[in-house]
Amino acid sequence: MIAVLQNLGTEFFIDLTECTTFAEIQAELYKKMESIADPAYVSGLNIVIGKEKISRAELRKIEGIVLDHGFLLNSLTANGPPEQSGSPENDTLYPEQLSQYQETALICRNLRSGQKFYTEGNVVILGDINPGAEVVAGGNILVMGVLRGMVHAGAFGDETVIVAAYRLNPTQLRIANHITRPPEGEEIIVEGPELARIKAGKVIIEKLKI
Fold first, then answer.
1. Tens digit of pLDDT for each residue in 62-81?
2. Hey, which residues does 118 pair with through a beta bridge?
3. CB atoms closer than 10 angstroms to residue 159
4. CB of 107 within 8 A of CB of 126?
5. Read out DSSP for 135-159?
6. What is the reported pTM?
7. Which label site among 18, 24, 102, 114 has the fewest CB atoms less than 10 Å from its CB?
């Protein structure tokens, strides 16, 4: 069994197609995560697996492994077409179709350092995202508080999503495969609600008109 780890600049490509079971995929992915020296300089991971289909539960487990090691998942490619099992939790998904799942999660609390939240759809947070906290969503991210942690909207490649917050001051903000960070050593003063979106291939910040 061979698992390939390839450095693509600030992105890494992990080939797990030789893994025949999901248990093998998890084990090899753990090994590859441990072999990356400094996750701070990696903008994301691109993972290819050999399974013909993947369930929502398995997708969440892979995303959790990636987030627990300080990375973000750029893409997850599975060989073969999707099939439906009839159970929402075990529905098999094809990565290019994941952004179609647009349920909205509601979080009524602050997210503290070390806490991670993942959803395939949109998320509304009635609280703050503190430094060291992470939120990853397949859809939009709306924060009715201060955003000071790391967020990734459009995690499956949707560039039409937005990130909005009452105070937008993230340590890292990402939409689809576009990433932005505040300049080091520069204090950013936020005077009102703002939103981030993709325009002309770049992440731009605009005032949010309420």
1. 877 887 777 767 677 765 44
2. 136
3. 15
4. yes
5. EEESS-EEEEEEE-SEEEESTTS-T
6. 0.57
7. 114
